[in-house]
TrEMBL record:
SUPFAM superfamilies: Anticodon-binding domain of a subclass of class I aminoacyl-tRNA synthetases (SSF47323), Nucleotidylyl transferase (SSF52374). Keywords: Aminoacyl-tRNA synthetase, ATP-binding, Coiled coil, Cytoplasm, Ligase, Metal-binding, Nucleotide-binding, Protein biosynthesis, Zinc. Residues 358-422 form the Cysteinyl-tRNA synthetase class Ia DALR domain. Residues 419-446 form a coiled coil. A motif ('HIGH' region) lies at residues 31-41. It comes from the Bacteria. Monomer. This is Cysteine--tRNA ligase. Its main location: cytoplasm. Its cofactor is Zn(2+).
């Protein structure tokens, strides 16, 4: 089966054919670093982390760029509020971004460019648009002339007349037409600014992504991603800028993820219902957040509530228990034998290959993570059934472990635990409990189990010996 991607431009699933065989150039719009990221921000970062990991697993050489908007009105206001400089605000929240996304198991992009590090490229890009007649200077601002780019609106499937009469646009006397958008903003007194041929100022929002894509990936890329809310105007404007300057198709596949609601209400500042990732870090495991995000298709809306998070926690617990039992069984030499000592169960091995094929078929259908998770639970069920046998074949257990690892390399929802993480006190309690059980001091053994439970350590007695796990 060939990989198919839903393209927002055509509104259909298309077979993925990269611009250059074996290579993928991918760009995702990153955060405006004036505050901590909330779970709505986190969704595209998790979604495209999985997309990237799956493409890598499929053998592609992926170059992934995710930017930081580190200068705009929001950062200027935040700097004034905190009585610090704009770069200090940016540095603070870039560091916070890395802390949050790494906690979520998201791998750093190959390049994380900042707007302030690419001012020259942005100015050169704008000058190129002016030279071609697609942009004009007006009282220190530079605006894009939308009427000259005849395909403006093709991504959002709107035309200029619909945009003019269907969308409220603030009147700006500096613009030839209300639909024109700013590429360079003339600096107000005291604001952070850079020198440009048309006056001191700073970049508009839309131009930064076009310029950075041009610099780091080239004039045409394979995949451009972001939240659904960026389709218009941000991505529409990117297309107009890039295709006007470079005179070639900008993006082959546009991917947009759906919204997140909070308790069935749209997340918004006015409702005050935003949830920052940093606030979740003390309340739940990162695998729970990833599972929650991936349990619905990336293009579908998603509802964050106590119930949906509890469901995610229960699912993660079920997956982890199966995987942990499998690892424990594999490590117990007395409970496994080589294939020549135990029937290798060819029907089980065949079933495992069916599960693996199903996982990849589902991921190749527009990265359908809910269906891929279904395949993972089929692996859990097959594993649990096989582990009921008193003696198991080593090749079967190893293949099961390999599949858990393979699926985890894409989804990132397994928790890796290590007994070395136990502190000395807990190690002593576990050893004391073993001795209490050996001497049939059941009361003390139960007392120690309760103490360990308080510390978040769950003990399980199995036919292959005692194993532990964290809650």
């Amino acid at each position: 089966m060939s990989l198919k991607i839903y393209n927002t431009m055509t509104r259909t699933k298309e077979v993925f054919v990269p611009l250059e065989e074996g290579k993928v150039k991918m760009y995702v719009c990153g955060p405006t670093v004036y505050n901590y990221i909330h779970i709505g921000n986190a969704r595209p970062f998790i979604v495209f982390d999985v997309v990237r990991k799956y493409l890598l697993a499929a053998g592609y050489d992926v170059t992934y760029v995710l930017n930081f908007t580190d200068v705009d009105d929001k950062l200027i206001r935040k700097a004034e509020e905190l009585k610090v400089t704009v770069p200090e605000v940016a540095d603070r929240f870039v560091d916070a971004f890395y802390d949050d996304v790494r906690w979520l198991g998201i791998k750093d992009a190959d390049v994380h460019p900042r707007v302030t590090e690419n001012i020259k490229e942005i100015i050169d890009f704008i000058q190129g648009l002016i030279d071609k007649g697609f942009a004009y200077v007006s009282e220190g601002d530079v605006n894009f002339r939308t009427s000259k780019f005849h395909e403006y609106g093709k991504l959002s499937h709107q035309n200029l007349e619909e945009l003019q009469f269907g969308i409220r646009i603030d009147v700006d006397e500096k613009k030839e037409n209300p639909q024109d958008f700013v590429l360079w903003k003339n600096a107000k007194p005291g604001e952070i600014s850079w020198s440009a041929p048309w006056g001191d100022g700073r970049p508009g929002w839309h131009i930064e992504c076009s310029a950075m894509i041009n610099k780091y990936l080239g004039p045409s890329i394979d995949i451009h991603g972001g939240g659904h809310d960026l389709t218009f105007p941000h991505h529409e404007c990117e297309i107009a800028q890039s295709e006007s300057l470079n005179e070639q198709n900008f993006v082959s596949y546009w991917m947009h993820n759906g919204y997140i609601n909070i308790n069935n209400e749209k997340m918004s500042k006015s409702l005050g219902n935003g949830i920052n990732v940093t606030d979740l870090r003390s309340r739940m495991k990162p695998q729970v957040i990833r599972y929650f995000m991936l349990s619905s298709h990336y293009r579908s809306p998603l509802n964050f509530s106590d119930d949906t998070i509890k469901q995610a926690e229960n699912s993660i617990e079920r997956i982890w228990n199966s995987y942990s039992n499998l690892k424990h069984r594999y490590a117990n030499a007395a409970a496994i034998q080589a294939a020549d000592g135990v029937k290798e169960a060819p029907e089980v091995m065949s079933r495992l290959e069916e599960i693996r094929n199903a996982f990849h078929d589902r991921m190749q259908d527009d990265f359908s993570t809910p269906d891929a998770i279904t395949a993972l639970f089929e692996l859990v069920a097959e594993t649990n059934l096989y582990l009921k046998q008193p003696v198991a074949a080593e090749p079967v257990l190893r293949r099961m472990l390999d599949l858990f690892t393979e699926f985890h390399s894409v989804l990132g929802i397994l928790e890796e635990e290590d007994q070395a993480l136990l502190d000395e006190e807990i190690e002593q309690l576990i050893e004391e409990r073993k001795e209490a059980r050996q001497s049939k001091n059941w009361a003390r053994a139960d007392e120690i189990r309760d103490l360990l439970t308080e510390k978040g350590i769950v003990l399980e007695d199995t036919p292959q010996g005692m194993r532990w796990r964290r809650k």
